[in-house]
Design brief:
By secondary structure, the chain is of the alpha+beta class. It folds into two domains: 43 residues, no CATH class; 72 residues, no CATH class.
């Protein structure tokens, strides 16, 4: 099992502390700083992964890599994996940054809304 980085642990502890206090206090700037630092880490990442329910064409993979490279501000190497459990859509991962537009994720979010309501 992969351990969490010092920054990620600090971020989680800051959020928990903030929630326990029920007010902003001095925690919010620290949490905001850690979140920005984690996002900056993702921007320096040169590796990314795209998962899809079906095999992507080389043209699709190249197009996604171009978009990620533009967002990161440098060349990003993209690996593609087939994950039928996603049902449809994509899941992109670059460092700690994850964008999940899969049908599985959408259904999971809808189910949580239904159970909360």
């Amino acid at each position: 099992m992969k351990s969490v980085s010092k920054d990620a642990r600090g971020f989680v502890e800051g959020v928990i502390s903030h929630l326990k206090r029920g007010k902003s206090g001095n925690v919010t700037p620290k949490v905001q700083s850690l979140l920005l630092k984690m996002t900056a880490t993702a921007k320096h990442e040169h590796q990314a992964k795209v998962e899809s329910a079906v095999k992507l064409t080389s043209t699709e993979i190249q197009a996604i890599a171009r978009v990620l490279s533009k967002v990161a501000g440098h060349e990003v190497s993209l690996t593609a994996e087939v994950n039928p459990a996603l049902i449809g859509g994509l899941r992109l991962t670059m460092a700690d940054w994850v964008m999940d537009s899969s049908i599985r994720n959408e259904l999971k979010e809808m189910a949580s809304i239904v159970t909360v309501s």
